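User: Could you go from structure to sequence for me? I need the amino acid at each position, not a summary. Structure tokens:
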């Protein structure tokens, strides 16, 4: 306010010494400044509003990246569980306040399709500050008699679109073929009975079937019985059958589909290893 008075004193009207004119003059100048300040305040508010709407105060830019996925399956009625780790990042420099989830889908291919892919789990992530990275370790069961072996786990950040994102096209992470490279012998079955592994994989069969006798023998079966292909077998000179807690390991160095069976239970106990070039 003092600056207005200085300005008024310096004006020719004030030098004339007329009190009323001075009062009027001061009033006019005050009005001009009041209006200027009102305009300035309105202008600033406008600029602020524009800045807020351009920056989207609620915007985040979420991305998700798989770090690891491990599937383990048990027999009986086949049940498989997934344990994994992924990170979710907010790449946007603006504060995010909205909460979001990462949905995990099982897909037959690497392309996400909300209509045909199976939702396996929904993991709450919560709001992320600008640049924040959150590490999440999901652990969940697959539907019964379902294996992710040879298929794709697709993690989708903010799949419900709860968050306004500056980029909505970087929300997917695909993990191909989450194992297992292990097969369990249980209840006179191999589980999972079909496993897809990359070339060079070391497949491990684990006997978890009490006192039952089993073998793991490459070959095919039909109604007349089974015939060994000679590629691999758990049978050795010292041990005909695998016993509880025994393991058998074979390394698959060539791509292809390899059928196998148990020499004791034959066509009732068969499995396949699909070896693919990654
Ligand atoms: Cu058997």
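Assistant: Here is the amino acid at each position, in order:
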């Amino acid at each position: 306010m003092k600056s207005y008075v200085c300005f008024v004193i310096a004006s020719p009207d004030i030098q004339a010494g007329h009190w009323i004119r001075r009062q009027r003059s001061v009033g006019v100048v005050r009005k001009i400044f009041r209006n200027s300040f009102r305009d300035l305040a309105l202008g600033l508010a406008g600029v602020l509003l524009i800045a807020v709407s351009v920056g989207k105060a609620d915007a985040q830019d979420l991305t998700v990246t798989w770090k690891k996925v491990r599937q383990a399956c048990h027999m009986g009625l086949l049940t498989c569980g997934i344990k994994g780790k992924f990170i979710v990042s907010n790449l946007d420099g603006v504060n995010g306040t909205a909460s979001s989830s990462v949905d995990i889908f099982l897909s037959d291919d690497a392309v996400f399709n909300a209509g045909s892919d199976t939702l396996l789990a929904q993991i709450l992530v919560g709001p992320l500050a600008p640049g924040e990275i959150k590490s999440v370790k999901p652990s969940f069961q697959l539907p019964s008699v379902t294996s992710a072996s040879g298929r794709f786990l697709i993690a989708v950040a903010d799949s419900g679109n709860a968050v306004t994102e500056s980029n909505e096209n970087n929300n997917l992470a695909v993990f191909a073929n989450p194992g297992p490279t292990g097969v369990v012998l249980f209840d006179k079955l191999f589980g999972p009975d079909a496993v897809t592994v990359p070339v060079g994989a070391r497949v491990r069969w684990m006997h978890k079937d009490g006192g039952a006798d089993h073998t793991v023998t490459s070959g095919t079966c039909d109604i007349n019985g089974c015939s060994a292909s000679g590629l691999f077998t758990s049978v050795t000179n010292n041990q005909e059958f695998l016993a509880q807690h025994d393991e058998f390991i074979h390394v698959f160095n060539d791509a292809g589909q390899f059928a196998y069976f148990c020499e004791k239970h034959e066509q009732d106990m068969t499995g396949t290893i699909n070896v693919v070039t990654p």
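One structural detail worth keeping in mind: The helical segments are 2-9, 12-15, 19-55.
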